[in-house]
Amino acid sequence: MFSLFTSHSFAEIKYKTYKKLPCSFNGAKVSTSANAAIKRSTRCSKGRGYKGKRGTSIEVKRGTPVFAITDMKLIYVQDKSAKQRCKVYNKTHKKGVCDRPYDDVQLLFEDKNGVRILYYHLMDSTFVPGFGKGKCEIPLEFGTNSKNRLPSYCGGYSKEIVEKKFLVKKGDIIGHSGTTGSNDKGDQHISLGTMVLTENLVGKEKKLCEKLKRRQCYVAPEIYFKWENLPTDSDAYLFPIMSKEYLKEIGYYK
Q1: How many CB atoms lie within 10 A of CB 47?
Q2: Domain ranges within the chain, ordered by starting residue
Q3: Which has the closest alpha carbon to 60: 236, 188, 193?
Q4: Cβ(49)–Cβ(150) under 8 Å?
Q5: Cα separations (Å) of 199 from 26, 104, 213?
Q6: 3-state secondary structure of 116
Q7: What are the DSSP calls for 60-106, one per residue?
Q8: What are residue 117's DSSP bridge partners?
Q9: pTM score over 0.85
């Protein structure tokens, strides 16, 4: 894990907070919102995506570092990646077209307020070094060999995350962004999903979640939380994608 909590002053980068996640930031673009959210957002994109879509898509070049948006505990990691996805699973997938490659490392966390934070469509994660190697090599077709894509089968979790008791800090690099193919402009992206405890929801969203009799419900992260562009000890969430200038300053790019 690459932590951003260093002695750097970030003198060239001005700290800002945002009531909502900007639709464009640090070379990333907020796209299709989470359909599973109690209140789906159309602020950044009119696209509906597939039924049951859990996370908001954030378009960004494949291989871009992805950051922990807050202090949180890792709940699980799974690698559902494949060299291709040819079977039609939803209306967004074009019939007769194969998506190559299909990145889908998934990470689920929980923060101090009980918010569940889900990242998926990552190409890798340092939490499980064995993913994509040896007996855990990425299969040809999406949806196959799923039982062998768990940490327990792939050499276990990294020594570092185990020693930290599965806790990550706001600003840790947790993996790199992936792609769901190379056929459409929006294929290179990650998805970010957030689930809030029903008791912490307010207004119409709380009533809708109570009606569904759920302990927690998905919300659209781009409209629900306060955000910041530099990591602090505040309750604001950090941008999941940071600028190249910032990466250079913390020593990620030599």
Answers
A1: 14
A2: 26-242
A3: 188
A4: no
A5: 34, 31, 11
A6: strand
A7: --TT-EEE-SSSEEEEEEEE--BSBB-S--STTSPTT--BSSB--EE
A8: 109, 194
A9: yes
Structure tokens at 15: 């700290």
What is the residue type of 194? T
The answer for residues whose C-beta is within 8 angstroms of residue 213's C-beta and 6 or more apart is: none
Give backbone dihedrals phi and psi of 163, rounded to 5 degrees, phi first.
-65, -30
Polymer length of the chain: 254
Half-sphere exposure of residue 86: CA atoms within 13 angstroms, side-chain side: 7
Cα angle, residue 150 at apex, residues 146 and 152 outer, rounded to 5°:
135
Q: Are 172 and 2 in contact (CB under 8 A)?
A: yes
Residue range 84-134, pLDDT digits in tens: 998 777 766 777 788 899 999 999 999 999 999 999 999 999 999 999 999
- pLDDT tens readout for residues 226-248: 999 999 999 999 999 999 988 98
Question: How far is Cα 54 from Cα 9, in angstroms, rounded to an integer?
Answer: 36
Q: Which pairing describes strands 116-124 and 173-179: parallel, antiparallel, or unpaired? A: antiparallel
Helix (H, G, I), strand (E, B) or coil at 148: helix
156 is written with which tokens?
Answer: 């276990």
